[in-house]
Amino acid sequence: MLAELIVRFLLGGAIVSAFSVLGELFKPKTFAGIFGAAPSVALASLALSYAKEGPEQAAVLARSMLLGAIAFYVYGAACVATTKRERWPVWAAAAGSWVAWFAVALTLWGAGQATGVLR
Amino acid sequence: MIPELRPAGLKDVAWWEYALRFVFGGVVTAVAGLVSHAFGPVVGGLLLAFPAILPASLTLLWRHEGRRQVIEDARGGRLGSVGLIAFAGVVWGTARAWPPAVTLAVATLAWVVVDVGLWAARFGIRRGRTA
Q1: What residues of B are in contact with residue A46 (Cβ under 8 Å)?
Q2: SS3 B2
Q3: How far is the C-alpha of A38 from the C-alpha of A58, rounded, in Å?
């Protein structure tokens, strides 16, 4: 388990860094910002899941990821709204917007469980 | 307006800022694995689209270029999440039928096409104005 975690850490860190470098290469910031929503953690996790558990597990992960990505859109909207507030430090606005991600992701997950879609 | 390649931008970022992003990305990927292990892939999959790196990236951008650029970057992130939805949809729909490398390559291509297309539609035609 520890070896797997180390591999996950290294692969995830490398892919996130690669997309981060790509983001630094472009102007304007509205375009560079796209790389902040790159599927970096997903690529690392899905590749390892394929290798260890197979395609069925990857498909289940991706189905839940779809809900997480919808929550990411709401997080982005919250981030745009909160970072406009001059009195709020950017780190607090961006990290505080995680509440929106958790609220939407868990609500969608709950709805999926209740309706049987996510079983 | 079209996106402009600016290699000099890499020099504006200190090595520890790249290291910070590496650590954030690595930790979230490891945590997603732990959550999948403990609670199953239905819960763990949610974290594959967790916006882990954005608070750190936006805070670093705030230090370098100010709040206005932070807001622009966050707008890009919001738009980019639509491509993330496309990525997840492609993997979900094809994972059982296609080879892993093909699925992940097509899904990544879908992310690029959707996001670049949306960006062009939203910002690309506003000639002469700041995107």
Answers
A1: 48, 91, 100, 104
A2: coil
A3: 18
